[in-house]
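I am still getting used to backbone structure tokens and would like to learn alongside you. Please make up or recall a protein chain and show it to me in full. Would you write everything just below, so we can both look at the same thing?
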Amino acid sequence: LYLDGISQLPAPAQVVDKFDTCKDFFVSAFFPKIPGILEDGTIKNQNRYKAICQYYNGKYRFATLYDTDNKIPVFSAYKFTGTENTDEIRTKIYPNQATDEDYKDSSGFDRGHLLPRQYATDESTAESTCTLTNIVPQKKNFNQGSWSKMEEHVVKIMMTDCKDSQAYVLIGAVPGEGKLKNRVIIPKMMWTAFCCETKSGKWLSGAYWGYNTDEQANIQLEQKSVNELQLTEDFSTGIQIFPEQCLTM
């Protein structure tokens, strides 16, 4: 299956018309609503946006909405079920929209994972996050600073406060103006949100976001409510990433 007439998507990533194939990665099978892009789980502009069920080593690992114009993911969705320690894994080199060459010698930028390896339940899931359809150009000190600390904090919340250490997470990138190697859009902002049922039967959720710029040391991202995550100015009005039970902290 060709995305742009040049690069062929690898077999492990399955492009689908709707996310129904991998609905288990979304809270109550509720797909984010992004008017004009994703409605009722269906891609509206299928020439540009691709719904990908990330399939690796015999099972679906997570889901991604991918923007072939900007050559970065819009978001990745995952059901967190606990973690195990994984060794550092080299980024998988697949002939995706963005290529490994796009990220070589890119001073100041990391290959920023939307779904991070830290959330992986096992080695195969950790490996699956290294596909370039889950990666954006991310400023090194942002990725390794406040963003990394936030990811570690969210893992602790999901492990300790969520029933059976199970939670749903969405991680996204907002396109900016700059490009890496004149091809790959550099996000201006990145965001993440989680939602789970607690051990007491209540719903718990939270959201974080940060700007993809050089940052000073010891910056911390503050947890906000999902309702406070403002994406409407970058996408459209009427956007909703989680169902109603997740819209309070």
Remarks:
- The radius of gyration is 17 Å.
- The chain has one domain: 13-246.
- Residues 13-246 form a domain with the Extracellular Endonuclease; Chain A fold (CATH 3.40.570.10).
- Residues 1-11, 86-97 have pLDDT under 50 and may be disordered.
